[in-house]
């Protein structure tokens, strides 16, 4: 990971700068990355958590230049809440992903207190797959990539063949897929959608830029298929509860990440159940006969 300091803008290429939010954690790595797009009128992608200092850092990085749009990849609380203060300060519209249709029921009781859902998110414009927002010298085109969340969008910058991958593809870790809003089948299909593209570089919500995205996405799909195979092998040995599967599958990881691993295994099991390959009785899962 290149050296980053919260609140200090870093130019990545002529049209792209980033700012690190001060919210490092086991689930956010060094923190959420906010991106500034453009040179005259700008877009801000994912203004981060509700944090007055980070909002002020974004405003300072704008340096008086007009803000054309506040663009949101998804509504986890480490990505979207900062949009409201930024809109109040600049008048810029909030555009991008839709609010969660499930409302409060989407909270999954999972481990990420930093990334529960932003139920106050209220966009001025929702971008459907393929729709764009643009300014002088830049275009951001929405790519619907559900899985990490049901409303997740990536954004392509065709002028430089860059992709802002949010939390769907990150530069340091695989994404958490936590039901009921997270969906493993959707997540893998969204990875396959990105695999079919020819983007030059990914700028993720957490971690370093990904300069060989095709290779990384191919590996991520393979990793998920490998996990699926592990689960099926364990269930064919004997019916099991999820914690027992995690203990066998995630040897050596930080114990603080076990709850997240359990959510990921649950997401795989739900997908396998839909496909007729596994089933459950209470807390016990088994392979289909």
TrEMBL record:
<dbReference type="Pfam" id="PF17778">
    <property type="entry name" value="WHD_BLACT"/>
</dbReference>
<feature type="domain" description="Metallo-beta-lactamase">
    <location>
        <begin position="31"/>
        <end position="206"/>
    </location>
</feature>
<dbReference type="InterPro" id="IPR050662">
    <property type="entry name" value="Sec-metab_biosynth-thioest"/>
</dbReference>
<protein>
    <submittedName>
        <fullName>MBL fold metallo-hydrolase</fullName>
    </submittedName>
</protein>
<dbReference type="InterPro" id="IPR036388">
    <property type="entry name" value="WH-like_DNA-bd_sf"/>
</dbReference>
<dbReference type="InterPro" id="IPR041516">
    <property type="entry name" value="LACTB2_WH"/>
</dbReference>
<dbReference type="InterPro" id="IPR036866">
    <property type="entry name" value="RibonucZ/Hydroxyglut_hydro"/>
</dbReference>
<dbReference type="Pfam" id="PF00753">
    <property type="entry name" value="Lactamase_B"/>
</dbReference>
<dbReference type="InterPro" id="IPR001279">
    <property type="entry name" value="Metallo-B-lactamas"/>
</dbReference>
